[in-house]
Amino acid sequence: MNGNWSHNSRFIFDRDTILHLRIPFSFFLLPVFCFGISQASSVHIAHTLIVFVAMHFFIYPGSNIYNSYMDKDTGSIGGLKNPPPVTRKLYYASIVCDVTGLFLCACTGLQNMLLMALYVAFSKAYSWHGIRLKKYPFASWLVIAFFQGGYTFMLAKMVAENNVHASWFNAQNVLGMAIASLLIGGSYPLTQIYQHKEDSSRGDHTISYRMGIKGTFIFTLVMFLTAAGMLFYYFTTSGRIADFFIFSACLTPVMVYFLYWFSVTIKDRQNADYAHMMRMNKISAVCMVVCFTIIFVVDHVTAW
User: Is the whole-model pTM more than 0.85?
Assistant: First the structure.
């Protein structure tokens, strides 16, 4: 094997490091970005594409690899069933990813870079042992729900509209942020449901660990239903009831699989595993990306 890709190579981005980036896992976070773009009054295409690349190919992977470095995971983690050994290279790779992502954002404007820098700061505070928000169940849930949800919705919509200004925060946009936070806040505990043992061994008593397996499913269901209700209000008050029907149709496969997974897990707790969680993530991400893409086409492309 080529020396650059060997385990003992000095090259930072060797095979193990690239695996820890978990770039495909960024797809599971794409729906919120798509939600923000679909709701933009106009779309600055160049800026939107640049920030999309920065976030999904550098910022998210940089957070993933930094989290891997801090956690020293040996069991399955999101997007990686059998993680390779953790080395110091992961730390340096996270810096390279963050700097590259922020540089790309700076190409679209200093304000966009500062917005992304705040996201990076909180993603580090989530994992870094000096702060380690991850060990606080409610605080970590709030941070993830807000930054991967509402804040990402805000960032995407602001960039698309080229409008980073306090006036952006009207009632409709704040409601959109709340909905995005609920969607992420509902799905996030499900990603922890198979890691209770490993997380607790590190002292990270996650919100899913605190609620238990059954409680996690119920909590997620309540969050999704609440988000759906708020989306109904969001679309109807803006005269776009058709968009809610699109959302409902796309959400159906997600709810069917969720209820199936819940039912088989009630019968056998062993089904609260990595395989079911990843399948849930894939179905949800695909359906929601399709949903907001259709809404974007209906509300923007057909209008042009």
Answer: yes
